[in-house]
């Protein structure tokens, strides 16, 4: 077996770094290595803050059934009082964005926020029981979660395949360097290698883009 030259170490290190960065950007791998930064800056906070949308709906429902005001419970979850004593879509959405847990995406937040705003508006205008309206919203959220869980389970294997196919080219180049085949010298130092590199990069980008388009709605 050929021994790798010391002059090739920087190239191997660069490839290994690129491979690691690519892995760290993929959600399945981030979960394995314990990266919990799933939420954006609008949703920052300690893990205890992310009780989930269902818990917020249940807490508001219990508070209303106990004779309280829904606005007070939403303000408690938000951490501060609203400017006016009115529940709007934007305020409810801000609360749900802050309290959602991992796996609850922007689409689910938007749907449930719209339903909660409609339930509150319906109760205010018609005088119907807000608790009953919240029961309906809670049941709809459970259906959305069940559908999302089923979709995530169905696409678990294809997502793992996407990860494997995405890292395979860089892994092959790295192994070639380790075994002394000098693939980088061929790719960057010869006309044939340059042609292979251009075609390979084009095919790689096209394939990853295609798989991303197919998989982007699996978290819905």
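Sequence proposed for the structure above (220 residues):
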């Amino acid at each position: 077996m050929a021994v790798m030259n010391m002059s090739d170490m920087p190239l191997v290190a660069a490839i290994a770094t690129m491979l690691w960065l690519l892995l760290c950007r993929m959600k399945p791998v981030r979960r394995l290595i314990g990266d919990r930064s799933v939420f954006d800056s609008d949703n920052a906070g300690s893990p205890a803050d992310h009780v989930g949308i269902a818990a917020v709906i249940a807490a508001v429902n219990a508070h209303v059934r106990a004779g309280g005001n829904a606005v007070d419970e939403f303000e408690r979850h938000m951490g501060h009082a609203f400017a006016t004593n009115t529940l709007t879509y934007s305020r409810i959405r801000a609360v749900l964005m802050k309290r959602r847990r991992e796996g609850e995406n922007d689409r689910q937040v938007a749907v449930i926020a719209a339903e909660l705003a409609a339930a509150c508006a319906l109760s205010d205008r018609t005088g119907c029981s807000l608790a009953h309206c919240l029961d309906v919203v809670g049941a709809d959220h459970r259906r959305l979660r069940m559908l999302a869980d089923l979709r995530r389970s169905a696409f678990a294997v294809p997502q793992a395949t996407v990860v494997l196919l995405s890292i395979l080219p860089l892994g092959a180049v790295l192994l070639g360097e380790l075994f002394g085949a000098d693939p980088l010298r061929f790719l960057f130092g010869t006309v044939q290698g340059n042609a292979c590199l251009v075609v390979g990069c084009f095919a790689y980008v096209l394939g990853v883009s295609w798989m991303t388009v197919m998989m982007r709605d699996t978290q819905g």
